[in-house]
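User: Predict the complex with FE2/S2 (inorganic) cluster.
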Amino acid sequence: MAEILQTIGSVTGISLVLAVIISLAEKWLNNYGQVNIDINRGGRTFTTEGGRSLLSTLSEQKIFIPSACGGKATCGLCKVQVLSGSGVILPTEIPYLTAQEQKDNVRLSCQVKVKNDMAILIPEELFNIKEFVGTVEELRDETHDIKLLRIRLPEGETVKFKAGQFMQFYTKPYGKVKETVFRAYSIASPPSDNTHIDLIVRLVPGGLATGYVHQALQVGDEVRLSGPYGDFYLRGENADELIMIAGGSGLAPIRSLIYDITEKGLDHKIRFFFGAVARRDLYALEEMAQLEKQNPNFTFIPALSNPADGDEWEGETGRITDVVARHLDGAEGKEAYLCGSPGMLDACIAVLNSKGFSDDSIFYDKF
Ligand SMILES: Cc1cc2nc3c(=O)[nH]c(=O)nc-3n(C[C@H](O)[C@H](O)[C@H](O)COP(=O)(O)OP(=O)(O)OC[C@H]3O[C@@H](n4cnc5c(N)ncnc54)[C@H](O)[C@@H]3O)c2cc1C
Ligand code: FES
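Assistant: Here is the predicted structure with FE2/S2 (inorganic) cluster placed in the model:
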């Protein structure tokens, strides 16, 4: 027995010594000291501590690069052109970079570690992105797994965005989740309401941000956001009719677009195809009916792909792709705006192409 205890003691001792050595080595190896960052050839410079990702380093300086995945190299939105000071492009970045971007040393800023002085180029408009700390004014169940979150900005602050754009939403540690993460959410409210931001969040089982919104967030809580970001917004100059297609929480940016078009009195005809599985997945029906009354050019076409027994559904049924195919006769004078899961969007884009829509008349946000 004494021998066993002695062995356990020795192993524990050795492990502790190793842990201390590793932690000291890590500290020493990762001590990059002060580094200088030059943005847009002298447009802005700052000095900071090295060792973090370029995305976090810039964010700390209140320079917000678009990002949807929280730095996991799965959204490809955080691109920055690095003129000097970065290492080689990592395998994690390759799928998101075109051959030309790789040649120009465009990098995913979440994958670039700041180790020495760097010079980078970023679009000037990113300097206009602001950070907000708002208060949750309303948290409403839209379906069994979708919540609408209404955030009020602090007194005197306003947000300026184009309908269709998105915000980055930051969580706080909650329950067993100790980390803070940030994710992209499309703004569901119209730009005319510049003191509020509505988000529509669908619960992803095991998801960190959606778990926070669905399980931890309360009315009255403070939440941090930055934005606006994104190039999903109305073009429309050359179109008489707008075909809008969404599924699930993809309704968010479409809702903002339809309110915006209606409030501005634009005369586009709009058909909005909204796909859901069963009746329990449909929401915003009353609101859309109200919008149809306000805007005679707007038609809402909800469709169920698999109505449940007892759903008593008299509307469209079938996959949203089939419903769209049934309703559309051609592409002339039309633009399409889509938002939903990658699978649904790819299938819808194929249908639109088969109806004659060119790729440059189709705009979308996949999530
Ligand atoms: C431009 C843009 C706008 C977006 N707008 C919205 C919006 O308005 N409303 C909204 O609800 N979401 C929106 N998203 C998606 C959102 O940013 C998050 O990715 C999503 O809410 C999941 O975050 P999470 O932290 O809960 O999950 P994570 O913790 O990131 O993921 C947990 C697990 O779920 C998987 N997963 C992640 N997302 C999904 C998904 N959608 N379906 C199935 N599995 C998934 C992951 O691979 C992982 O295994 C948008 C994304 C983009 C890029
Ligand atoms: S933040 Fe998503 S890929 Fe970099």
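Residues 276 and 294 are 24 Å apart (CA to CA).
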